[in-house]
Specification:
Order of helices and strands: HEHHEEHEHHEHEHEHEHEHEHEHEHHHH
CATH topology of the largest domain: Rossmann fold
Helix content: 40-55%
Structural class: alpha/beta
Largest sheet: 6 strands, parallel
Number of strands: 12
Number of helices: 17
Shape: globular
Strand content: 5-15%
CATH architecture of the largest domain: 3-Layer(aba) Sandwich
CATH class of the largest domain: Alpha Beta
Strand order of the largest sheet: 2-1-3-4-5-6
CATH superfamily of the largest domain: Glycogen Phosphorylase B
Distance between the termini: 103 Å
Amino acid sequence: MKTEIKDQEPPITERIEALSQELFGKPLKDVKHVIVTNHIHQQLLQEEVTRTGLYQWLNVFNGEIKYPRDIVDYNEYDIVQVNLSAQDVYLINDIREKIGKTSKTKLVVNNDYTTEIWGGAFEYTSTLSRELQGADMLFGTEYFQSTALSEISGRKVYVVPHPTDIKRLKSLPQIPKKDLISVIWRRYDNNKYIPSLMVRNHGLTTQLIGFDDTKDNKVFLTTTLYDFVIAGTNYFDFCDQLRENKIILDPFTYHSYSRTTVDTAALGVAVVGSNRTQSMNVCYPHTTIDPWDVKKARELIKRLIDDEEFYNLVVNTALEKCEFYNHENSAERYLGCLADALKADAPAIKEQKPFKKVVGSGEDVHKVLSQKVTRENVNKKK
């Protein structure tokens, strides 16, 4: 009796190399990649590009980061990547004009701004839509960014989280856990009051870490909510702060893929965190909460303290699932999406239809503003 041999998927390294050959006709190690920006975070370079996030693509592709003024010919690169920050939006079509429509150079544009702050980062949607058309591929780092970008651009937008150097984080020696529970502070939502109710009275020392007093709207209040409030620091020290904790609370109220949660997962730390972040849902499926649910958060924290089996389940699951963000998986996702984007039909901009006011839907702010201006002009004439 013959045993049926099923086709096995080739190893990821072979799949990556096949994609690289398909896209560029060369092995990945020979692909030239550059991130172009008008603002380079020098601290990240001083940290030897170890921090999780946008700059990790430099390690995945052995790439460079440069100011536009320092690039003589974009066609020398196989991939030119632009992060969709407010000061760099204009670069997309500026670069497209310089490389031309028939160039072999691929122009990739990504967004990693959480959608809750788009109003402060981007201008008119028509302007943004026009700029986005210059890209060969568009991606966001999580679902909500991608769907919003797709609506603005009229194009297919991919979900490609920024990579993490999982191998390096897992290679760090284990240190004894202290009786600490720390809350991750974010400058965007400034959320510290409700999280303090989640972590207090568990018999653990409470900390707020990653704090920036210049971004806090009530520093005097914050200092009363925790045993210690610790200022943000470099990435190496921050990783040490993370891994010495018995439990971390990551209560970010905005939608993000949350690079910090990937760090904690690779470092083997138990986390209770927001279900609005992609990496929390991927790495910590047993301990996700609504970031405002004090009762559920306290129950999970107590269970992590009292139930060793549950604690180990949470940590071991995170250590396994965080590989989703490693360099190899990130490279395959990136190249696979780029290959798919290049096969897609040319993007068609959606027809912009005028907004039709529904009866009873409220007062039209445009009408109110115009009336106000008119009244002001009349008063001035009098």
